[in-house]
């Protein structure tokens, strides 16, 4: 798939970006082939609406100080995305003037094509240029593959927190580089 382009996300990507995020979240965390986390249906519905609806995605794309990139196939379909912005992680050394990788999602059909690595490189370059301190990532505690990927880029576990999916709380690790 050499015709994939990494580019900044645009406001007109909101519907496709939200749909990709929604499906990738379900495939990764909810499906039997993924981590099969038993989120209560109501909590999952709230999270999906607040995170991936077109309205929520448009708002996130317009957030001051945040950046989004998409991997777009030759047919115009979005295959993967990354989002970074001002740090929001609850760590005593973290500051809003530091940057955080908030999401790195690769759709199931595009996994194994190196798009996550390409998007991560793009995001880390941006984060370095826009941070006055360390770089931060929150990662689900059960995602060993993601933890290994980030460790390979110099990130170390420095804390833990709980990430809300509706009222359900996922156990997450706080990673820092620098």
Walkthrough of the structure:
The chain is an alpha+beta fold. The protein has a seven-stranded mixed beta sheet with strand order 1-2-3-4-5-7-6, with helices on both faces. β6 and β7 form a beta hairpin. α1 packs across α3 and α2 crosses α3. The protein is globular. The termini are far apart.
Please tag this protein with its features.
178 residues, alpha+beta, seven-stranded mixed beta sheet, 7 strands, 34% helix, 30% strand, globular
For the biggest sheet, the summary is: 7 strands, mixed
Tally of alpha and pi helices: 5
**Strand arrangement, major sheet:** 1-2-3-4-5-7-6
Alpha-carbon Rg, integer: 15 Å
Class computed from helices, strands and strand pairing: alpha+beta
Strand content: 25-35%
| Helix proportion range | 25-40%
The number of E-state strands comes to 7
Q: Write down the overall mean pLDDT.
A: 96
How far do the termini sit from each other?
34 Å
Bulk shape: globular
Summarize the structure.
The protein has helices at 14-30, 41-52, 54-61, 115-130, 144-151; strands spanning 5-8, 67-72, 78-86, 99-106, 135-140, 156-165, 168-177. The chain has 178 residues and is an alpha+beta fold.
């Amino acid at each position: 798939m050499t015709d994939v382009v990494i580019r900044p996300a645009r406001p007109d990507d909101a519907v496709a970006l939200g749909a990709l995020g929604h499906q990738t979240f379900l495939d990764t965390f909810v499906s039997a082939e993924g981590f099969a986390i038993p989120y209560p249906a109501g909590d999952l519905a709230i999270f999906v609406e607040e995170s991936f609806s077109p309205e929520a995605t448009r708002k996130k794309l317009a957030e001051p100080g945040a950046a989004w990139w998409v991997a777009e196939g030759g047919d115009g379909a979005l295959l993967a995305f990354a989002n970074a912005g001002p740090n929001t992680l609850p760590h005593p050394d973290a500051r809003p003037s530091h940057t955080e990788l908030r999401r790195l999602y690769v759709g199931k059909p595009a996994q194994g094509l190196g798009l996550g690595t390409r998007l991560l490189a793009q995001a880390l370059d941006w984060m370095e240029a826009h941070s006055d301190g360390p770089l931060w990532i929150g990662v689900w505690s059960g995602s060993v593959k993601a933890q290994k990927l980030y460790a390979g880029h110099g990130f170390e576990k420095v804390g833990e927190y709980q990430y809300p999916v509706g009222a359900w709380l996922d156990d997450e690790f706080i990673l820092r580089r620098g």
